[in-house]
Amino acid sequence: MREIVVISGKGGTGKTSLTAAFASLAENMVLCDADVDAADLHLLMDPEIKERQDFQGGGTAVINPEKCTECGLCLDLCRFDAIKENFVVDQLECEGCGVCVDLCPEGAIDFPINTCGEWFISETRFGPMVHARLGIAEENSGKLVSLVRQEAKKLAEKNKLDLIITDGPPGIGCPVIASVGGASVVLIVAEPTVSGLHDMERVAELAAHFRVPGMICVNKYDLNPDQTEAIENLAKKKGISVLGRIPFDPVFTKSMIKGKTIFEYNEKLEVCTAVQRIWKQIVTSPAMSGK
To answer: Could you give the CA distance from residue 262 to residue 162 in angstroms, rounded to a whole number?
Structure first.
């Protein structure tokens, strides 16, 4: 089973648009949206939901007034000041650490598991897709990322599909760590800015830490050729394959408004040729061919 994970050091680099473009070029694949905190691949894929499941993760303390003796120990233990003087837990302040639950002498504090989102198996015009929606201000996004990736692999095995294309989250935090582990290759989408160079370096180091082969492309490269060159030089020093450059083109925005990929909008554009070249290099790379 091969999995391509598209990531970036920050949001707004064009990661999701590029993932959607790859979906229109690929065959026998499952799509996976692992950017659960701000999922938007569905806006381009227009998925028809076939299966819907609740996502549960973490707990929130609840004090049982019938058992509570108001000894005050929980007030002293809670570092987040989530327990008020009337021995009621503020659900917004509780971080779910469980200290009060473990140490309450009367066993008066319950710890019910939260339902904090949903995940879906859907059908799109390019094939099956696994995606999710995390609730507002909810946590455990890393756990949900792991879940959708596992379900995507199960779906691929069930349908005898040999490729997963995953739209990963931006940054280097827990969701990104959950999205890259065990992947065949990660494609880092960078943008030619000073912060883009720094962000690319951080996410490249993360991929290297987990021993996942990294590749890079620069989106909107012609907006700042000097920074594009700096990004590519840094990538080469770190042993990261530089796959190419994608020129700035409003077609990405225009196609997004229409709910289409760039190839569906106008496949004859220069930007489409650039993306095709990058895709070909990914699928023929040693990391994808198993060589």
So the answer is: 24
How far apart CA 115 and CA 134 sit, in angstroms, is 10
Cα–Cα nearest to 227, from 13, 50, 61, 44 = 13
Q: Tell me the CATH number at 191.
A: 3.40.50.300
Query: 221 by DSSP, 3-state: which?
Result: helix
Instruction: Give the mean pLDDT per block of 10 residues along the chain (291 residues).
Output: 93 93 95 93 96 91 95 95 94 91 95 92 97 84 94 96 95 93 95 93 94 95 96 93 95 93 92 96 86 53
Q: Is the dihedral of CA 119, 130, 179, 157 positive or negative?
A: positive
pLDDT for the residue numbered 12: 87
What pLDDT is attached to residue 290? 62
Distance CA 240, CA 39 (A): 27
| Core vs surface per residue 256-272: b (16+ CB within 10 A) or e | beeebbbbebeeeeebb
Its domain, for residue 76, covers 61-111
Q: What is the reported pTM?
A: 0.89
Pure H helices in the chain: 15-25, 42-45, 73-77, 99-103, 141-158, 174-180, 194-209, 225-237, 251-257, 262-266, 270-283, 286-289
Same-domain pairing of 171 and 235? yes
Return the sign of the alpha-carbon dihedral for residues 125, 127, 128, 133.
negative
Residues 181 and 285 in one domain: yes
Let me know whether 106 and 134 are in one domain. no
Q: What is the Cα 139 distance to its own chain's centre?
A: 14
Tell whether 154 and 266 lie within a shared domain. Answer: yes
Q: How far is CA 8 from the centre of its chain?
A: 10
Cα(97)–Cα(254) distance, integer angstroms: 45
- Indicate if 92 and 206 belong to the same structural domain: no
